[in-house]
Amino acid sequence: MIITSIELSDVVYDDLSSPNAALLLASHTIGNTTKLVWCNWLEIDEHWQDKITLNALAKHYKFDSNHVAFVAAEALDASNSEQQLLLTCIHQIQQYIQGLRCDFDLPIDISLGTDFQRRVWHALQGIGFGETISYATLAQRVGSPKGFRAVAQANSKNPFSVIIPCHRVISSDGKLGGYTGGLDKKEYLLALEGAEYRP
Predict the structure, then answer these.
(1) Which of 20, 43, 111, 158 is 20 to 30 A from 182 via CA?
(2) CA angle (88 as vertex; 195, 39 as ends), nearest 5
(3) CB neighbours of residue 104 within 10 Å
(4) Has this prediction a pTM greater than 0.85?
(5) How far apart are CA 17 and CA 36, in angstroms?
(6) Which of 113, 125, 120, 180 has its CA nearest to residue 150?
(7) What is the pLDDT of residue 15?
């Protein structure tokens, strides 16, 4: 498994000031296929080993967590398949932040989630760029109309922030609701997409 990070402040888009945070990315070869297994927020003063659920990933994918390597984004080597995928991911995130991309085309592995969480994560991928829906609407879409709290919990376990757009789910009253990465990140992403919500 290879891990890297990208600081949002390194990618400038218009005058929209980005949060003082980074996205932590991890790729891993599963069978013979390299996939992205993690993309989540990392505060600038946070250490990546404190943020990523490395033990859970190691147990799930059956690898030795001592053999995980962190490679700085500028040192990633395109000749290595896991590092090449991270370079592709960084490029697509940069395009998204610069307004050049509305969705992502990346091989991701969501097998770490429960059946219900995976249903929710699949449904999240159906919410378009710049759109928002309520937790109640999302619960209906996954066949659990009274399960909006369970849906919110599944959102909080999303291992692919930004890529699986849980930031597009807001409260029924139009307010932001929650966001595991912090509401400043959710506000930033929704503003970036021109989505409507109540502050």
Answers:
(1) 111
(2) 60
(3) 20
(4) yes
(5) 27
(6) 120
(7) 60
- E strand intervals along 18-136: 21-30, 33-43, 69-70, 133-134
- Contacts of 12-15 with C-beta under 8 Å, sequence gap 24+, read 12/98, 13/97, 13/98, 13/99, 13/192, 14/99
14, 11, 35: which is closest to 23 by C-alpha? 11
pLDDT along the chain (199 residues), means of 10: 88 66 94 96 86 88 91 96 98 92 96 96 97 96 92 95 96 91 92 88
- Token pair, residue 179, equals 């966001």
In the 8-state DSSP scheme, what is residue 22? E
Half-sphere exposure of 1 (CA within 13 A, CB side): 23
Locus of tokens 């999302």: 138
For 87, the 3-state DSSP assignment is helix
39 annotated active-site: no
CA distances from 54 to 88, 126, 177 (A): 22, 28, 28
Angle subtended by helix axes 148-156 and 115-124, to nearest 10: 80
What pLDDT is stored for residue 41 in this prediction?
93
In the set 39, 89, 102, 166, the catalytic residue is: 166
| Cα gap 39→32, rounded to integer Å | 21
CA atoms within 13 A on the CB side of 44: 8
**DSSP code of 91?**
H
Per-residue pLDDT reduced to its tens digit, 107-147: 999 999 999 999 999 999 999 999 999 999 999 999 999 99
Average pLDDT, the chain: 92
